[in-house]
Amino acid sequence: MTEITDSASSPSADVPDWEKRFRAPRVSLPDWAEDAPDNALFVSNATGTYELYAWDRATGARRQATDRPNGTTDGVLTPDGAWIWWFSDTDGDEFGVWRRQPFGGRPAGEADEPAVPGLAPSFPAGLALGRGGLAAVGRSTDEDGTTIHVVRVDGGEPAEIYRHRESASVGDLSYDGDLLAIEHTEHGDAMHSALRVVRLDGSRVAELDDTEGGTRELGLEVLGFSPVAGDSRLLVGHQRRGRWEPMIWDPLTGEETDLAVELPGDLGAEWYPDGSGLLIEHSFEARSELWRYDMAKRALVRVETPAGSVSGATARPDGSVEYLWSSAAVPPSVRSTAGGTILDAPGFTAPGSVPVEDAWVEGPGGRVHALVQRPSGARGPLPTVFEIHGGPTWHDSDAFAAAPAAWVDHGFAVVRVNYRGSTGYGREWTDALKHRVGLIELEDIAAVREWAVSSGLADPARLVLSGGSWGGYLTLLGLGTQPDAWAAGLAAVPVADYVTAYNDEMEALKAMDRTLLGGTPEEVPERFAASSPLTYVDEVRAPVYISAGLNDPRCPIKQVENYVDRLAARGAVHEVYRYEAGHGSLVVEERIKQVRLELDFARRHVAARA
């Protein structure tokens, strides 16, 4: 293997801390091969672009596995550790094919081969790699909906075993490779999946459906088959008690084992490699921690981690746990319960930032949780950025983030709101969005905004609404529906014209929009109109900055241009930055450029106000 070279040497003293946080090399939690645990795969920005790296843990050698202008982050190891599969799209458009390379790499100048030559390009819909060259590949296209194909890579054509217009995805292959778990939404609710287990010829083995044909809104997710040969049990996430938690289901016998883990908040889980226990990731009120669930004793044992957020964890064959940890004040690192940091990127360490404070505000739908950062020693009222997360089914947490830290460095307070729709606060909170999409989230943001002003934190004349993806959508919608509340808006890769976005976006997101709004634009035009920023564009009073990827399949460029044209027609103050990538950028310097443009826009239009 060829060692990683460090192109991220320590920057000069005149480089500001906010840029250093983006440039500092980072690594993801390493994935490892089930039958060759010394073979690992991780993502790093060591070259200035996020790419996949192979790591031979036995020798310590690391090798850059992919090298593309717009970066690569989706990769999987085969169970024997012999091959790396990675997803190849075009300039961030998310439409492409899986390719593969030997773990040790190919000779110089030799290109990676398509992993399944018989499959045409598509949007990915899950991937499971089994033993003996077995693979289950999920595909999504506008023409076919979701299809799933099974193939023996080293011999045989891919066989289509599943097809449906609604969204679905590959879950997992059983250890023995005779069962495949699929998540599907054939009932038409893209927010709540049902599960199906099939043989490799597509014949149905068992079905688990908590939606009862769409009459109730309970979702299921595949967490993984047992890692033990001959064991058909499947670890499943469910919402039967109002939050995500694990149970075990045997699709061959129908037996369900309720684990009843008594912890508040959402619970994720994965198997320990010997099947003796489960590694529980517990997320509650914007923090997370780890526990071991002993299968024999049916008991929880705490896995000690610092206060903050665990962004991923895995149990190793020796029983140790490796995890990616950070807090708002401390940059991320990959740690082990065996002691110390287990994977460092070459180069300098990112400067820290300030810790978050918790704010709980009474909103129209219940208590709203917000995370607040302010410059050290600063007193209000301060210019304040409301940095709104995407998703919408996601949440901001006490984790390190370079963009909020940049605002703090420039004298702004930062408020991040876990509005209705956010995860980590129970199923009802997450599912509250339907039919009044966007408007519900903005009610919660408005409640927190009123608190920020009345508490003396925020200067009401210097409030910035900002976000990316769904957060960018809420920014544009908020500028139009709350025109007197905001001094400026910063919208990255936003939904701007909901009807055009629906018509142009990838099929899986169309399904999600039909669920959120209750139908298509033709079926519920009034709901699309009420939730579209374009409807309110003539009410926008604040200066608007918009950045958009020209190849974005999630928030396509045409609908952004429609909104910008309307701003221009009425002479509204606005600036637009278009870049050659998809839904965001994996190139560090490009990301720094975008944040620099946002900071400059805010300086000119907001920060100077008295």
Describe the model.
- The chain has 610 residues and is an alpha+beta fold.
- It has 10 helices and 36 strands.
- Helix 1 (17-23) runs antiparallel to helix 2 (402-409).
- The N and C termini lie far apart (58 Å).
- Mean pLDDT is 95; it is low at 1-8.
List the helices and strands and how they pair.
Layout: H1 17-23, E1 31-33, E2 36-44, E3 51-56, E4 61-64, E5 75-77, E6 83-88, E7 97-102, E8 113-114, E9 123-129, E10 134-141, E11 145-152, E12 159-164, E13 168-173, E14 180-184, E15 194-198, E16 204-208, E17 220-225, E18 234-238, E19 245-249, E20 256-258, E21 266-271, E22 277-284, E23 287-294, E24 299-303, E25 309-315, E26 321-326, E27 333-336, E28 341-343, E29 357-363, E30 366-373, E31 382-388, H2 402-409, E32 413-418, H3 427-430, H4 439-454, E33 458-468, H5 470-481, E34 488-492, H6 498-504, H7 507-517, H8 525-530, E35 544-549, H9 557-569, E36 574-579, H10 588-607
Parallel strand pairs: 31-32, 31-33, 33-34, 34-35, 35-36
Antiparallel strand pairs: 1-2, 2-3, 3-4, 5-6, 6-7, 7-8, 9-10, 10-11, 11-12, 13-14, 14-15, 15-16, 17-18, 18-19, 19-20, 21-22, 22-23, 23-24, 25-26, 26-27, 27-28, 29-30, 30-32
Helix pairs in contact: 1-2
